[in-house]
Amino acid sequence: MSAKPVEHLVEALLFLSPEPVSIPELAEALDVTEAEVDRALDLLGDVLAEGKRGVVLRHVGGGYTLAADPAAEEVARRLLSKPKTPPLTQAQAECLAIVAYLQPVSRPEIARIRGVNSESAVGTLTERGLIEESGRSRFGAAVYRTTPLFERLFGLAGLDSLPDPARFDPTPEDERELRERLLRAGEQRAGD
Amino acid sequence: MSAKPVEHLVEALLFLSPEPVSIPELAEALDVTEAEVDRALDLLGDVLAEGKRGVVLRHVGGGYTLAADPAAEEVARRLLSKPKTPPLTQAQAECLAIVAYLQPVSRPEIARIRGVNSESAVGTLTERGLIEESGRSRFGAAVYRTTPLFERLFGLAGLDSLPDPARFDPTPEDERELRERLLRAGEQRAGD
Amino acid sequence: MRVADLDLDLDAFSGPFDLLLALVLRDELSLAEIALGEIVVAYVEHLDAEGELDLEAATEFLVLIASLLELKSRLLLPAPEEDEISPLGPEEAADELLARMLEYRRYRDAAAHLSELFAAGRRYMYRRAPLPAPLRRASFDAAEAIYEPERLAVALGDLLRTPPRPDTSHIRPTVSLERRLDVLRELLRRGRAFDFDDAFGSEDRLTQAVTLFALLEMHKRGEATWDQGETFGPITVKSAVRSRESVGEGT
After folding, report:
1. Neighbours of A147 (CB within 10 A)
2. Which residues does A106 contact at the CB level (< 8 Å), separation at least 6?
3. Which of A143, C37, C112, C118 sits a CA distance of 20 to 30 A from A189?
4. CB count, 10 Å around CB of B109?
5. By the 8 A CB rule, do C133 and A145 touch?
6. Interface predicted TM-score of the whole assembly (ipTM), two decimals
7. Going by C-beta distance under 8 Å and a sequence separation of 6 or more, which residues neighbour residue C42?
């Protein structure tokens, strides 16, 4: 290791680590002082400044990380992005339906309607870009809405082209607001 | 994209891709000729030659990929707390050699060549992802082939980079001597 | 289907294949009488009906039928005077062994070479990071309508459904014989006699039946008896015990 310049080792470590690495972590792994790591990061930052190579050095979330140059995003998409559109699971379809018909809607509300924790389904839908956070509720919970990509993937001209759920509604005579009825049905399910 | 040198985009693509990328794939994603990709890889290979930076360019598994410089192996294992992969046992190496050269090959055939049951070694190699079942022989036995991971871990650009097995054949003198020894052994046994 | 279950209907035998095997192995059925060709035909017909080839089963069948054929040929052919397959001469034996050893050596040396490659290759570590989020989703421009909007309406319909009341029909009320005996004894202790309908007429049928059963039990033990003047008439239950102290212990 001794012969290898510290900035090269730092580059190798940042290259391998999927998460940002902090200066103390780097110093400990390399068995050098934090000042030396600092210096190495300066050197590396010069070489990997934006526009200089295909990879750039980034300082994010309490650490350093390497990232592909944003200019390569379009070609990267062509090479790597197999459209992530697998069939929706029942949980995902339910969450998506709740967000689509009630938006904006908070995560606790989704959970109350479904009667089960919906964190993972909401996470997947967010990751796939079908829904997104659109702010906070009065109580500080994240509220969600659907995205333009959602409308694309469902072939909808707009949110008002969503099909009328009345056709699949088991209690159509009930005229209360959709949100209220969903919440009530969810509470009854949870009360079992 | 136009302003960005091809080798920078190639670097970004290889950085992002979890698998080695072939020249035709790179050419298609970048919308350039394979000759241009070739040139870009040459340039990149110079910059990322071993010992020059923290990351090196490798030609393995039918494509190109980036790897951390081996000089950083020790510090990287410390940072990522990744143990060294155990070396291959003699039995595993023999089975792997037979599969690599004769693929697709069945387990009974492996056992016949090695002269011993090879179930456990074949199982371990399958578990380590170095070989995989690729179908059934005429007689219903599973047949095996090597995986892309095998090529990557063994630094092979492809299966045709395996050395000619004739290289491992004994010289005619060795062969004659071996035959003599066998004959003598046979006569001794016959004389018992 | 397992080969053992293959149903056979041969001239000399009818039943599953594994039974045939067992009979042959126990010498209870002579292989000489069995037309092995018919078994093969039966198996091929079975394959035809099945429509697909189960390789495991087919292999098993081949092994079994081959051993039966070998057994039968030994039965039918005259035994050789002596072992006619002469052992290999030393020359041939050495050649055969040599060929095998050379083949093995080739792979043993190739294995040593691979081990070196592995030792060199595993010094290289590769990046194992997920793709950045924007690359993990479909791009807006390339996105096509692949989901059915109907699916959302159906999902919402499912969520509007309230669960049906739990079905409790499988839970039966239980009536304890012990408890009915206690009730009867208590009534008799209080009054020496009572009318069955007055006491139990308002109970459900199951309780009445178990009470009647308890009464029979008490009659058997000599604790109680009854009068019924006419068919379907009122039943008067009376104590059959003379001394109060023995109630409950009179067996």
Report:
1. 20
2. A137, A139, A141, A142, A143, A144
3. A143
4. 18
5. no
6. 0.71
7. C6, C7, C8, C9, C10
Q: How far is CA B16 from the centre of its chain?
A: 22
Task: Give A80→chain B minimum CA distance, Å.
Answer: 7
Please tell me the distance from the alpha carbon of residue A3 to that of residue B51, in angstroms, as a whole number.
10
Neighbour-count burial of B78, counting CB atoms closer than 10 A to its CB (0-12 exposed, 13-18 middle, 19+ buried): middle
Per DSSP, what are the bridge partners of residue A63?
A: A60
Separation CA A56–CA A65 (nearest Å): 8
Q: Is residue B8 less than 8 Å (CB to CB) from chain A?
A: yes
Per-residue pLDDT of chain C (251 residues; tens, 9 = 90+): 566 677 777 777 777 777 777 777 666 777 777 788 888 888 888 777 777 777 666 766 776 777 777 777 766 665 555 555 555 566 666 677 677 777 888 888 889 999 998 988 888 888 888 777 777 777 777 777 888 888 888 888 888 877 666 666 666 667 788 888 888 888 888 877 888 888 888 888 888 888 888 888 888 888 888 888 777 788 888 888 765 444 444 44
Q: Which of residues 66-105 of B touch A (CB under 8 A)?
A: 66, 68-69, 71-72, 74-76, 78-80
B43 CB near a chain A CB, below 8 Å? no
Tell me whether residue A169 is exposed, middle or buried, using C-beta atoms within 10 angstroms of its C-beta: 0 to 12, 13 to 18, 19 or more: middle
Distance from CA of C119 to the nearest CA of A (A): 19
User: Three-state secondary structure along chain A?
Assistant: CCCCCHHHHHHHHHHHCCCCECHHHHHHHHCCCHHHHHHHHHHHHHHCCCCCCCEEEEEECCEEEEEECHHHHHHHHHHHCCCCCCCCCHHHHHHHHHHHHHCCEEHHHHHHHHCCCCHHHHHHHHHCCCEEEEEECCCCCEEEEECHHHHHHCCCCCHHHCCCHHHHCCCCCCCCCHHHHHHHHHHHHHCC
The answer to whether the CB atoms of B140 and C59 lie below 8 A apart is yes
The whole-chain average pLDDT of chain B stands at 86
pLDDT digits (tens, 9 = 90+) for B80-114: 887 777 888 999 999 999 999 999 999 888 888 88
Average pLDDT over residues A117-139: 88
- A 10 A CB-CB count for C76 gives 9
Q: How many helices (H) and strands (E) does chain C have?
A: 9, 6
Q: Which of A15, A44, A42, A40 is nearest to A30 (CA)?
A: A40
